[in-house]
Request: fold
Amino acid sequence: MTHDRPVPTEMYRTGLGSAWHGDALDLLEDVQSSSVQLILTSPPFALQRKKSYGNQLHAEYVEWFKPFAGEFMRVLRDDGSLVIDIGGTWNKGLPTRSMYHFDLVLMLTRELGFHLAEEFYWYNKAKLPTPAAWVTIKRIRVKDAVNPVWWLGKTAWPDADNRRVLRKYSPAQRKLLDRGSYNAGRRPSGHVISAKGFQTDHGGAIPPNLIEVANTRSFDPYQKYCRQMGFTPHDARFPREVPEFFVKFLSKPGDLVLEPFAGSNMVGAVAQELGRRWRSFELNWDFAEGSMGRFLAVEDLDPLEGPQPKQET
Reply:
């Protein structure tokens, strides 16, 4: 541990998990090998503008991420998954895109041996039309409204079950199932559709790899708690639906879920609600303190090191 990295400190815990302040590289050293079912994270993105959560430059991003990824490989179970929400960025001064998030997945697969199980995209239709220079002034680009989400496995066979994340049938599909008839046969695409497969009620529809969630919540119990205590809310918070999908899809009750760049610790909160064990790591003390606001309703919450209200100066 270098002198400029904080001493790892447990901030709070519940019967299922614990939240820690410190550098994830230090904290990962104490995680047992082959013990984690799911690492679900939204690390600092490589953006042109510096954010309060300490994002990295895109030219240096892959080398910065590599030591964490090596530890991820070590702590994951053989049937475990690594899910990375990783927003894209633009090249400085140009209407062209950085390749850093593709470089990242290439490093993870070609150098470290992860397997790309499937790529997902989180579509946030409420995103602002940025960068303004290209989208609203020169009008030569459209707004960037999706984040790639890389789902990788330690092996080619991570545990997953899409029956855990089935969607409600559309009214049209529900009507077909209730009527008991389906227009089977060959489609223009060449696919042959059997009546048997599409007339069986499986309890819901299989979701696509596009997750549509508008990240528009401007006030919730977490933000209320931060304001009451004088903490700065994290400015790039996960909407609940994104981690909820992956926790359900890629883990079972009792499994261990890890978030190494926790921010406001939405992943830990979702894991807690779904009966998974969890551990979260956060480098920023203010964010680590404020994240306890997501757990105030948990009966066995133990505050440990804090948080304490900030004093006026």
Q: What stands out?
A: The first strand starts at residue 9 and ends at 13. The chain is about 25% helix and 20% strand. Residues 9-166+206-294 form a domain with the Rossmann fold fold (CATH 3.40.50.150).
